[in-house]
UniProtKB/TrEMBL annotation:
Coiled coil: none annotated. This is Integrin alpha-2 domain-containing protein. One of its GO terms (molecular function) is integrin binding. It comes from Notodromas monacha. Residues 507-527, 540-656, 819-841 are annotated as: Disordered.
Length: 841
C-alpha cells in the first residue's frame, strides 16, 4: 500500500491525500482512493475511487507508488502520478478546476409555518388556496474557472414525500420543474415564485421540504482542455411546517378515546340484515393529525356504508374498504381538534359467513382500532382498541308437503282380470306420490333426514301399491336404494305425470336449487330395524348411481323426535345436541367377490280405509338385503351399530352449557366392545321414531324409504317422487271397491350451521292420500257360506223364544177384567147385540 499527499486538490482550504492499493479491486490489479480533508478532519468516505481498468487495459500493481502535490499542467490544481511496477508504467492524472456554488433556497415565511386557513392565492379555476413565496439565490467562485458559467437547476417541492402536498403556482399540479441560470463569477443571481398547498391533505405533521439541485450545463465553455466540476455542494433545501395547535413545544400529544355499540345482541344467519356499529371517537388531548379508525372484518362480511350520527360536519369522516385485507379504513378529520368528538355508524352486511371445516363458527369477530400520526403516549393507548363479538343465531323452518297424481284413481276391473302379468299396465292404474321438503329459512340447513312410509303390501300379504322404480329425486339430497321395487321384473311403461309442484302450496316457490342425485345400484342398503333411523354422512367419496361406488364413510346417529303435524315451529333459543357415533365403511375395486348381508324388520303404515270403515292392513314382514361387489380386487366392510342417547348443549348469544346427562344405551366399536354413553336421549325422540315407522293402529307391511337431504339454503327444495301401480286384484280379493290409500313422509333436521343443535326444531310429517274409485263396474260381493245362514236363523229363533219367555214372565198374556154389578160379568153378552146398560131410546 502507498500513500501520498495531494495538497488542496479541491481548493477548500484543507489538505487532501491519495491511498494506493496495488492488489485491490475486482481483478486484483490495483485501486487508488482519494480522500478529502474538512473542518472536522478527514472525510472517511473516499471522494473518488480510481481502478486500474479505468485507466488502461493490462495495468497491474496499479497504485504501488504515488506522487502528488505538484501542478504539472499549470492550472492551479495539484496533479497525481501513479506507478505500476509490474507493468513498467506511470499514470499521470490531471486535476480538474472546481466550481464552488453558494447561495440557498428559502421559503419566505415568518416562523416557518403556513396557515391553511389563510387562502391568499387563486388557481386558474378560481379555487382559493393557501400559498407562500419562495426564493433561490446562486453565487459561484473558484480558481482556474471561467468568468461565466451556466447551471441547470431543478426545483422540487415536498421532495421527501411520494405524494406531494405542495405545488408551484405557475405550474399548477406540478411539484418540480427545471431552469437554466447563466452566472457571472462573483455575482449573485436570485429567482422568486409562489408555492401553494392543495386542499384535503392528510399529513399535517411532516415538514414540507423544498430543494434546488444544480449541475453544470453542457453548454458551459471551459479552458485548457479540462472541463470543471461542481464542488461538494450540489443542492440547497429548506423546510416549512403547517401551523397546528400544539402548545409551546409545537408537539401535539392527543388522547384518543374509542367506543362502539352494536344495534343487535346477536345475528340471525341468513336473515339478510345489516350489522350497524355506533362508533364514537373523542380527542381528550391536543390536536390529533391523520386520525384513522380501522375495522377488521371476518370473512364473508362486506362493507356497505357509513352514516354520520352527529351534526359536527366540520370534521369530515371518509371510509373506504380494502376487500383483499378485509379492512375498512376511516379517515377522521385532519386534525381532530382537542376536546372534539365524531360519531358515525359503520354498516356491514354478512353475506357469506365462513367458518372452519366443521362450520362451527360461533360469532363474528370484529376488531376496531384508532390511531394518529402524532407522537404516541402509551398511557393513552388502552382505549384505542375495541374487540366486538356478534354471536351467531340460526333459525330455519322445515316445511314438508305432498301431492298425489292423479288425485282420484278411477279404474275398470274388467281391464285387469289376468292372473299373470308381464307389463305394469296389466297390474293396475299408475299412482304417483310426490313429496317436497323446503327450507323456509332464513338460515341454511346443513342436513335433514326424511322417511317415507310406503304401503307396499295389503293385509293378505299381496301387493297393494307396487313400486315400479327407485325414488326419483330433485334438489340437494339422495335416497337409499329401496328393495321391493318391481320384484316381478314387470315391463315398465311410465305414463306421463301431469302437472308440477307449483300447486302443492300457494306460498311454495316452484323452483328448486341444488343438484339431484338419483339412487341406483351401489348405494348403501337400508340398515337393520334398530338402526332404521340412522342418518348417514359421507366423506371421502361421492355416492354414485352405478354399481360399485368407490368408498365412503358414514357416521350414524339413532334418535327420535316427538310427534307433530305442524309445519311451522320455531324456538328462540338454540341448542347443540350431542351423541356418540358409529361408522360404516365399504371399499370396492377389481378382483375378488365380496358379499354383505343386512337385515331389516319393520312395521307398516295406515294404507287405506274401505267404505264400510274397515282399515286395510297388512302383517309384519322381515326382509333381507344382500349386496355383492362383483369383480372386486379388494373389498372390506365394517359396521358399527349406534344409537343416540341424547344430550344437548344449548347455544344462545355465543354462550353454552350442557344438559340432559345421564345413563343410556351402549355403543359398539368395530371390535364388538361396548362404549359407555354419558348422555340420555332427548324426550321427543321416541315419538319421532314411532312416527317414522308407524303404518297405523294395526300392523301392516310397509316399505321404509330413507332419504338424506341437504344442504338446503333458504327457499331450496328437495323433491322425491315415487311411482307405483295399484294392484287391482288385491282390492278384489279383499272385497273393496272404494278405498283410500295413504303414504307418509316424516322429516327432521339433523344438522344446522355453526354447531347449533337442531333438536329445538320439531319434526314435520305429512301424508299423501290416493282416493280409489271404481269406474263402470261394481265389485261382486263374496258368496256367503251356508253355515252363516243357518247360524243366523238359529240365532233369530233363539232370540224370539227369549223374548216370548220374558213377556210371559211379565204377565203380558194374563188379562184382568173389571167386576160389574147386577150379576153382569165379563162373560155375559147382550142378547140383542147391545149392552144392557145402553140408554133406551
Amino acid at each position: 500500500m502507498a500513500i501520498a499527499s495531494l495538497g488542496d486538490v479541491d481548493k477548500d482550504g484543507y489538505s487532501d491525500f491519495a491511498v494506493g492499493a496495488p492488489y485491490d479491486g475486482e481483478d486484483g490489479r490495483g485501486v487508488v482512493y482519494i480522500y478529502l480533508g474538512s473542518i472536522d478532519g478527514v472525510v472517511k468516505t473516499a471522494s473518488q475511487t480510481i481502478a486500474a481498468n479505468t485507466i488502461a487495459p493490462g495495468l497491474e500493481t496499479f497504485g504501488f507508488s504515488l506522487s502528488g502535490g505538484l501542478d504539472l499542467d499549470f492550472n492551479e490544481y495539484p496533479d497525481l502520478l501513479i506507478g505500476s511496477y509490474k507493468s513498467d508504467s506511470v499514470a499521470y492524472l490531471r486535476a480538474r478546476p472546481v466550481v464552488n456554488v453558494s447561495g440557498g433556497f428559502f421559503f419566505e415565511k415568518p416562523m416557518k409555518g403556513i396557515d391553511l386557513s389563510n387562502k391568499s392565492c387563486q388557481l386558474k379555476d378560481g379555487t382559493q388556496v393557501s400559498c407562500l413565496p419562495y426564493r433561490l439565490c446562486l453565487h459561484y467562485g473558484g480558481e482556474g474557472v471561467n468568468n461565466q458559467i451556466s447551471l441547470e437547476v431543478e426545483y422540487m417541492l415536498d421532495s421527501k414525500k411520494n405524494a406531494p402536498r405542495m405545488f408551484f403556482i405557475n405550474y399548477e399540479g406540478r411539484n418540480k420543474f427545471r431552469r437554466t441560470f447563466t452566472l457571472i463569477k462573483g455575482a449573485t443571481d436570485c429567482d422568486t415564485g409562489h408555492a401553494y398547498i392543495k386542499d384535503g391533505i392528510r399529513d399535517k405533521l411532516t415538514p414540507i421540504v423544498g430543494t434546488a439541485t444544480f449541475k453544470l450545463s453542457e453548454l458551459t465553455p471551459f479552458m485548457r482542455g479540462l472541463r470543471p466540476i461542481v464542488g461538494p455542494v450540489h443542492s440547497f433545501e429548506d423546510a416549512i411546517t403547517i401551523q397546528r395547535n400544539c402548545g409551546g413545544d409545537d408537539v401535539c400529544i392527543p388522547d384518543l378515546q374509542l367506543s362502539a355499540v352494536l344495534n343487535r345482541e346477536s345475528y340471525l344467519v341468513g336473515s339478510g340484515d345489516n350489522i350497524e356499529m355506533d362508533v364514537k371517537v373523542f380527542n381528550g388531548g391536543e390536536d390529533s393529525f391523520e386520525t384513522t379508525a380501522f375495522l377488521t372484518m371476518p370473512s364473508g362480511v362486506n362493507y356497505v356504508k357509513i352514516e354520520r350520527l352527529d351534526t359536527n360536519h366540520g370534521i369530515p369522516v371518509f371510509c373506504s374498504p380494502n376487500l383483499s385485507q378485509r379492512i375498512v379504513k376511516c379517515d377522521i378529520g385532519n386534525p381532530l381538534p382537542a376536546y372534539q368528538q365524531v360519531r358515525f355508524n359503520i354498516i356491514v352486511h354478512p353475506q357469506a359467513i365462513q367458518g372452519d371445516r366443521e362450520n362451527l363458527l360461533k360469532a363474528l369477530e370484529f376488531m376496531l382500532t384508532v390511531n394518529s400520526t402524532n407522537p404516541d403516549d402509551e398511557s393513552f393507548a388502552a382505549d384505542n382498541m375495541r374487540k366486538i363479538s356478534v354471536p351467531l343465531r340460526v333459525e330455519a323452518e322445515l316445511l314438508v308437503s305432498g301431492v298425489q297424481e292423479p288425485e282420484t284413481v278411477t279404474y275398470n276391473r274388467s281391464n285387469y282380470k289376468k292372473d299373470s302379468w308381464k307389463s305394469e299396465k296389466e297390474v293396475g292404474p299408475q299412482v304417483v306420490h310426490r313429496y317436497i321438503v323446503e327450507n323456509r329459512g332464513p338460515s341454511d340447513i346443513n342436513e335433514a333426514v326424511a322417511f317415507i312410509v310406503w304401503p307396499t303390501y295389503a293385509s293378505n300379504g299381496d301387493y297393494l301399491l307396487y313400486l315400479m322404480e327407485q325414488p326419483e329425486v330433485e334438489g340437494p339430497g339422495w335416497c337409499r336404494k329401496v328393495k321391493n321395487v318391481n320384484p316381478l321384473n314387470l315391463e315398465l311403461f311410465k305414463e306421463k305425470i301431469q302437472g308440477n309442484t307449483e300447486f302443492l302450496q300457494e306460498e311454495l316457490d316452484p323452483t328448486s336449487t341444488g343438484s339431484g342425485v338419483g339412487s341406483g345400484e351401489g348405494l348403501l342398503p337400508s340398515s337393520s330395524d334398530e338402526h332404521l333411523l340412522e342418518t348417514e354422512y359421507y366423506s371421502g367419496s361421492s355416492v354414485k348411481g352405478n354399481a360399485g361406488y368407490g368408498q365412503g364413510t358414514s357416521t350414524s346417529t339413532d334418535d327420535s323426535e316427538s310427534s307433530s303435524n305442524q309445519h311451522h315451529f320455531r324456538h328462540g333459543s338454540q341448542q347443540q345436541h350431542g351423541g356418540n357415533e358409529g361408522h360404516y365403511d365399504a371399499n370396492a375395486g377389481v378382483g375378488n367377490n365380496h358379499e354383505s348381508t343386512f337385515h331389516r324388520s319393520s312395521s307398516s303404515s295406515n294404507i287405506g280405509t274401505s267404505d264400510s270403515g274397515e282399515r286395510v292392513k297388512t302383517s309384519s314382514y322381515y326382509e333381507e338385503k344382500v349386496y355383492r361387489s362383483s369383480s372386486s380386487k379388494t373389498s372390506s366392510a365394517s359396521k358399527t351399530s349406534s344409537s343416540l342417547s341424547g344430550g344437548s348443549k344449548y347455544h344462545q348469544a355465543g354462550s353454552s352449557h350442557d344438559d340432559f346427562y345421564g345413563a343410556s344405551d351402549d355403543m359398539w366399536d368395530p371390535n364388538g366392545n361396548a362404549l359407555p354413553r354419558t348422555k340420555r336421549q332427548a324426550p321427543w325422540m321416541k315419538d319421532f321414531r314411532r312416527e317414522a315407522k308407524d303404518c297405523g293402529p294395526t300392523t301392516s307391511n310397509c316399505t321404509i324409504i330413507n332419504c338424506t337431504i341437504g344442504p338446503l339454503g333458504q327457499a331450496d327444495k328437495f323433491i322425491v317422487t315415487l311411482r307405483a301401480r295399484l294392484w287391482i286384484h288385491t282390492l278384489a280379493d279383499l272385497g273393496y271397491g272404494d278405498a283410500s290409500i295413504s303414504s307418509k313422509m316424516v322429516a327432521r333436521v339433523t344438522s344446522l350451521p355453526h354447531g347449533v343443535d337442531p333438536s329445538y326444531m320439531r319434526f314435520q310429517a305429512t301424508a299423501v292420500k290416493s282416493i280409489i274409485n271404481p269406474g263402470d263396474e261394481i265389485f261382486e260381493a263374496k258368496p256367503v257360506p251356508w253355515w252363516v245362514y243357518l247360524l243366523a236363523a238359529l240365532g233369530g229363533l233363539l232370540l224370539l223364544l227369549l223374548l216370548i219367555y220374558g213377556l210371559y214372565k211379565c204377565g203380558f198374556f194374563k188379562r184382568k177384567r173389571p167386576k160389574h154389578a147386577n150379576g153382569s160379568g165379563p162373560g155375559r153378552m147382550p142378547l140383542n147385540g147391545y149392552d144392557h146398560n145402553d140408554t133406551a131410546l
